[in-house]
Amino acid sequence: MSTTPTTGQDTLQKFIFENAAVRGELIDISATWREVLSRHHYPAPVKKLLGQMVAAAALLSANLKFNGSIIMQIHGDGPVRLLVVECDAELRLRATAKLNPDMEVADDATLTSLLNAQGKGRFIITLDPAEKVPGQQPYQGVVPLDGDDVSTVIENYMLRSEQLDTKLWLAADDNVSRGLLLQKLPYHGGKAEATPVSEEDALETWNRAVILGSTVKEQELLETGIDVLIQRLFWEETIRVFDPVHPQFHCSCTREKVGNMLKMLGQEEIDSVIAELGHVGVNCDFCGKHYEYDKVDCAQLFASSAPVETLLPAGEAKH
Predict the structure, then answer these.
(1) Is 154 helix (H, G, I), strand (E, B) or coil?
(2) 133 Cβ contact partners less than 8 Å away, ≥ 6 residues apart
(3) N or C: which end of the chain has fewer CB within 10 A?
(4) pLDDT of residue 314
(5) 3-state DSSP assignment of residue 59
């Protein structure tokens, strides 16, 4: 059953547990999620997974002191080839999925059956700086798809790759995308706290926070606003709540980036399309915007000595 659509702007609420090395975030990113879905028609199980990734990408990005974009991808070996969400430092997001046209998506399909049926699925997080210095490459972490749901996959990645204890609770349907993140920060002996806290007390607070977070159910996340959830879950805790921030949908595709993608395909490939159709048409997989290149446009692309970008918006040349 689909939940009732939310209204207003998306909101991400940060908070910390006072005198304890635990931070948290709650997000309602439903407006952005509906904007993504307005451009695509996915089966229900795919919507659920991609919607959860949209919430997770914003939650992780909000904790990064990084001027650039985080790109979260799951590469699959089943009915779903790719799930990808990109979120920049201003919490502007876009997302898309690529399905295997030769395989059906069952109504009760799981992450494993959709993306890791042969055990070859991969989870990838890329950090792409907004302003690269010459020779700088994006940082990329690639791990096997370890987990039965999006939350577990990301938790395992964060523990192994970033050495950060992270817990996520995510929920998404046709209208709503929400999530809760808790993170255990490195213990520094309590010296920076107004009231010093022992390592044992810090661990106890973390364990208690996780227990409280674990009481939230998927349907409760879908149906309850984050202002109510934060009170319901942590009303007995002393927490400090920060000013909310507001994610939104944004696609960063440009004619220049699409031109770079065509250059990566190679002149021989592009020339064959021009010979057959007289032009090359490309639709952005994220927002659906159409880009058209004629024979002269393509000749100018390959005459340019400008470097080809390594990260490009997903697009598909229409042969």
Answers:
(1) helix
(2) none
(3) N
(4) 43
(5) helix
